[in-house]
Amino acid sequence: MRTYYHLLLDKLHFSPEDDAVLRHAGDLVFEQFPTLMPRVVGMYYESDFNHEPALAELESVQTLLNIPINTLRFILIACAAERMQSAYAEHGYTEEMFTDFLKDLRCKVKTHHTLEKVLGLPVSSVSYWYPLFLGLKLFALGRLQYEIYQRPNITEPITVGGHTVQPEDIVRFIHIPAIGPLDREARMDSYRKAYEFFKEDLGDKPFVLYCTSWLLYERNREFMSPNSNIVDFMNDFKIVKSFPVPSIDYSCIFNMPYKSGDPAVPKDNALRRSLAAWLDAGGVPGGGDGYFLFDGETIIND
After folding, report:
1. Average pLDDT over the chain, rounded to an integer
2. Which residues pair with 244 in a beta bridge?
3. What domains are there in the chain, each with its CATH number?
4. Separation CA 24–CA 2 (nearest Å)
5. 189-238, pLDDT tens digit by residue?
6. Beta carbons within 8 Å of 94's beta carbon, 6+ residues apart
7. How do strand 158-160 and strand 163-165 relate by DSSP bridges?
8. pLDDT under 70 in the chain at which residues?
9. Burial grade of 262 (CB within 10 A; 0-12, 13-18, 19 or more)
10. How many CB atoms lie within 10 A of CB 234?
11. pLDDT at position 203, please?
């Protein structure tokens, strides 16, 4: 497992400084508690990713190792990925898919480092996010990610592209990692990969894609350019619901919670400047729900 951990770090391409910190932390764990990670990874998988016993084990050695719990969470997920990579090989999934997963892991660590000033992962990554990947319910396919998803609290059917999506229907929930531009070429490439990946499971039903995100908030059009990648992404969908979420702090855009008048808030690109001006003028954050069908080449959202 120690060898796998180092090989995975080779593929994650962190900065030399961050890479050295993560390698040193891993070496301390494997040298001082050689059975810890194999045991904790086994507990994590065998409990269907119940994170509490695994984290309790890590917390019990945190002080002795003098390693932040955030970093220990990363080491857990990095080691757990070995079983996931083996499962990918058994299912005949491409190496590119695993590489796309690693882009997500690298992104989550970098984002957490920016926001919390410590290398590692938040509790939510271990309790919710990475169990989806490790349990083969969420797949990274190019620019986007797709979760096999049954929508909670949906009681009414939705009609899109002439097809009625029933409340109990399984859809593919699109997630948008912060790994680069959301341009049309990258999106279409990802949609095609997803269609090919899932098409054998569809039977006679169309490929239904669903998303709920701040990216689908209709009021984004008030401050974003109509030619922006985000607005173009919005136009892929039939947006069926748009709603305010005042608690959104746009950390994903500013790399910190937005506070009006705070000189530390960066405004070094068009999106940051326009969003800040909109918020300062009384704009209320929010989100939206949307659907579209995809037939392998064409988006259908009317």
Report:
1. 96
2. 286
3. 1-135 (no CATH), 137-248+285-302 (3.40.630.120)
4. 11
5. 999 999 999 999 998 899 999 999 999 999 999 999 999 999 999 999 99
6. none
7. antiparallel
8. none
9. exposed
10. 21
11. 87
